[in-house]
Amino acid sequence: MNKAFATTIAWGLGLAVSAAATDAEPESGRQAFVRSLLGRMTLEEKIGQLNLPSVGLDVTGPVVSADVEAKIRRGEAGGVFNAYTPAVTRKLQDLAVKETRLGIPLLFGYDVIHGHKTIFPIPLGLSCSWDPTLIQRSARLAAVEAAADGLNWVFSPMVDIARDPRWGRIAEGSGEDPFLGSTMAAAMVRGYQGDDLARSNTVLACVKHFALYGAAEGGRDYNTVDMSRLKMFEYYLPPYQAAVAAGAGSVMTSFNEVDAIPASGNRWLVTDLLRGQWGFRGLVVSDYTSINEMVAHGTGELKQNVQLALKAGVDMDMVGEGYLRYAKALIAEGALPESVIEAACARVLTAKHQLGLFADPYRGCTEGRAREEIFTPAHRAAAREFAERSCVLLKNANETLPLKTTGVIALVGPLADRRRDLIGSWSAAGDWKQAVSVEEGIRNAAGPGLTILRARGANLIEEGALREALNASGGELEIDSRSREALVEEAVAVAGRAEVVVVVLGEAFGMSGEAASRSDIGLPEHQQELLRALVALGKPVVLVLMNGRPLTLTWEDAHCQAILETWFAGTEAGNAIAALLFGSANPSGKLTASFPRAVGQIPVYYNHKNTGRPYRGDPREKYLSRYLDIPNEPLYPFGYGLSYTTFECDPPRLSKTVLRGNDSLTATVKVSNTGRHPGRETVQLYITDPVASLTRSVLDLRGFQQVELRPGETREVVFTITPEQLKFFNRSLHYDWEPGEFIIRTGPDSAHLKSASVRWERP
Ligand code: NOJ
Question: Alpha-carbon distance 146 to 142, whole Å?
Answer without folding.
Answer: 6
